[in-house]
Amino acid sequence: MAAKTQIRREKLREALLEIAERRIAENGYRALTARELAAEAGCAVGAIYNIFKDMDALVADVNSRTGARLEQAVAEAFVQTANAGTPKGQLVLLGRIYLSFVVANPLLWSAIFEHAGRVGEDFAARREVENARLIGHIVKPLRLLLPDAGADRVVLVARALFAAVHGIVSLGLQRRFLAESPDEVATQITFIVEAFCDGVAVRKG
Amino acid sequence: MAAKTQIRREKLREALLEIAERRIAENGYRALTARELAAEAGCAVGAIYNIFKDMDALVADVNSRTGARLEQAVAEAFVQTANAGTPKGQLVLLGRIYLSFVVANPLLWSAIFEHAGRVGEDFAARREVENARLIGHIVKPLRLLLPDAGADRVVLVARALFAAVHGIVSLGLQRRFLAESPDEVATQITFIVEAFCDGVAVRKG
DNA sequence: CACGGATTTGAACGTTGTTCAAGTATCTAT
DNA sequence: ATAGATACTTGAACAACGTTCAAATCCGTG
Q1: Do B111 and B149 fall within a single domain?
Q2: Is the CB of A40 under 7 A from strand C?
């Protein structure tokens, strides 16, 4: 085998992902071109295709990293209060953490969803796994709110709640769609999540 | 002036929008190319640019039409039950109408949001107006639910509720993101909206 | 009918992602 | 250490894209 080759490939792979991530964060994934990427990495354009099937696969890997960073941010910030607040407070906190990550990384985060339609079946499956982890954080406090519900139903509700918060963040971020400041978006998240929790509590009783 | 010219331009404009709309509905807006569009319309590629500033402007116009059709569908289906059901039932109905439109026109609807980042300031402003109409349908039943809230607050909540439903539909539609059938998505919408309404009602009392 | 300005045309331009024959580096065997 | 074989990298070339603009065409008018 070619040991030196494998090491070089690994280094280049890392460099390409690093550069692509920075460029996407600065200018969006649409502005990422193979030639510029190769030029900054100091390699030939063809070298990209030795490592990644195509540019879409590269962007999908960057998106995977972004998803992991998001999940990590949620996990870290959440353990601090996991055993403290009420389920309602925990769910609101989760939503706010999600929002703050998106505000801090708008273009990287956008890339995940804007690029979603361009990836193959395998990449989509991988992202589903990544998302399950994110949903897992919501499931825990939700179980306390829905003690009588089955596991499947809790997951379904968790997904719905995640999607709802995602929608508020998503439209809130798009300038001019629902013109709002991050503060207003945070207010909306709080309102929806709290109302949801109160509504669920009513039905329980 | 050239009367014949203006008529021809108007006819071509309509034909281009019609063709573009059908092609987007069939293959997504990314598959729409200037050359194919011109070929099917029986005109030169340059002719497109006599009528639209660029391809983005053309897609923006198609999206505008789609938005109008959506608003119309909501309005039509809603008048039938506006004076009948409870505010809660009306809001759930709104969400389901939204979902059914999206299921019927997935690619046209996706184009609105996937293309959002590519349009100029003026187009974005126009869409904000279009969206205000959609929000207006939510505001009416919401006022009954929040009789003590100011108009601004009701609009803010209406936007949040719309965004929440939008998020559920949006992620629900993306295959593999949160793998779900349209039925499951409908269940999620019902659950979120009802819980929201119940929660709001609790706080009122 | 012929003239002149407005309008339409499509070849050409600059970029894009992607490929693959040719060149270069690496490993093995003597 | 060297030669041969194998694997890898390279960047010019390709097809397709949106967009432009000199040239051709059409239209209303004197």
Answers
A1: yes
A2: no
